[in-house]
Fold this protein.
Amino acid sequence: VLPGAGATIASAMTYTNEKKIAGKNGTFGEGDLRGIAAPEAANNASACGSFIPMLTLGVPGSGTTAVMMGALTLYNITPGPQLFSEQPDIVWGLIASLFIGNIILLALNIPLVGFFAKLLNIPNYI
């Protein structure tokens, strides 16, 4: 949620935390799945978190939200504290679209997880 922190800092923080939790007997650097899963989860989670400073403070939380903020400004929509009271339909439309998008991803990913796992069997040269 910190403005400007983005996915890089979130990934680095979670990797460091997982490495500390694993202790000295951890297999980090040798293919430990926790060293991959935790930073990737933080990377994905930071995408929606970067909207918070953009919508509430008018400060872009990442490069993507900076571009989105520029696009909103082209349409005379100024992100910031007044956005919630002046144009609540835009704010709640954005929040609803993120919620619906997550539901659609869940509905697609659960049945297709076996197919995605089988994609790993494709040789690298292909």
